[in-house]
Amino acid sequence: MNLLAIETATEACSVALVHGETVIARTELAPRRHAERVLPMADELLAEAGIGKHALDGIAVGRGPGAFTGVRLAVSLAQGMAMALDVPVVTVSSLAALALEAPEDDADILAVIDARMGEIYAASYRRDGAGGLVALDEERVCTAQALLLPQAMAWNVVGSGWATYQDTLLGKLAGSLRSAESARYPQARHVATLAVSEFKAGRAQAPELALPVYLRDKVALTLAEQGR
After folding, report:
1. CA atoms within 13 Å, Cβ hemisphere of 178
2. Helix, coil or strand: residue 58
3. Which residues lie closer than 8 Å to 52 by C-beta, 6 or more apart?
4. What gap in Å lies between CA 209 and CA 72, rounded to an integer?
5. How far from each other are the two terminal CA atoms of the chain, in whole angstroms?
6. Rounded CA gap, 221 and 5, in Å?
7. Second label for 40, Cα 20 to 30 Å away, from 29, 53, 67, 187?
8. Mapping DSSP to helix (H, G, I), strand (E, B) and coil, where does residue 109 land?
9. Sheet of 22-29: strands edge to edge?
10. For residue range 86-103, what is the model confidence (pLDDT) as tens digits?
11. DSSP 3-state assignment of 65?
């Protein structure tokens, strides 16, 4: 299988290529530069693998949640490339991709992205022992104070939401925190890992059915809200 994966839902601009049994990737922190970096990075990976775009069997994409512009960019690029190449798309939760940045142990994982405007994007997972994840709850956008977590013996926390709301999240974890890393972002190599299983299970989609997940419609606070 040759599969190209794109993830730009956060500050990290990331592209990965599954080429047979090999996964190669490029990633860089490039706020506001995703649009200029993502396609050159994809071309670099294809050149490194020695294949052209028409050798691709599918496109995988981080569908969000995350920054509106980043999510929209990734999904639009995935749709456009898949339509041009006549290949299917698999969408992968950016929170699930982030969760795979956690240590590989038996602790449950809280993936949490700073959603701005006083909120976080959050979801909880458990590793399935085969390189994938089992979701423990639904993806949601909420305040850190309103976050409800399932019971767990231990937690690994990953994502930018930890840096912003560490004190509040600590209270939610009730002494079960094993590790926490805020400087972690969804990576295309993890999108690729999760997408391969979806492709093999026959859950790829036509490009026009590959949709972003924003979790909220509001982009910014009003002036009155900012004042409060």
Report:
1. 14
2. strand
3. 46
4. 14
5. 53
6. 32
7. 67
8. strand
9. 22-29, 12-19, 2-7, 58-62, 89-92
10. 999 999 999 999 999 999
11. coil
Provide the pairing of β-strand 155-158 with 140-142: unpaired
Task: Tell me the torsion sign for CA atoms 45, 49, 53, 58.
Answer: negative
Strands 12-19 and 177-181: unpaired
Q: Rounded to an integer, what distance in angstroms lies between the CA atom of residue 102 and that of residue 104? A: 6
Tokens representing residue 75 in the block: 């999904």
CB 214 within 8 A of CB 41: no
Sign of the CA dihedral with 215 first, then 119, 60, and 212 last: positive
Helical segments of the chain, H only:
34-49, 68-85, 94-99, 160-173, 188-200, 223-227
C-alpha count within 13 angstroms, C-beta hemisphere, residue 188: 32
In one letter, which amino acid is 147?
Answer: L
CA angle 13, 17, 20 (to 5 degrees): 165
SS3 178: strand
Condensed to tens digits (0 to 9), the pLDDT of residues 117-167 reads 999 999 999 999 899 999 999 999 999 999 999 999 999 999 999 999 999
Q: Tell me if 162 sits within 8 A of 181, measured CB to CB.
A: yes
What CA–CA distance (Å, rounded) separates 162 from 29? Answer: 18
CB 3 within 8 A of CB 196: yes
Q: Residue 59 corresponds to which tokens in the numbers above?
A: 């496109």
**What pTM was estimated for this model as a whole?**
0.94
Question: Is a pLDDT exceeding 70 seen at residue 226?
Answer: no
Q: Any idea of the CA torsion for 219, 222, 223, 228, to the nearest 10 degrees?
A: -110
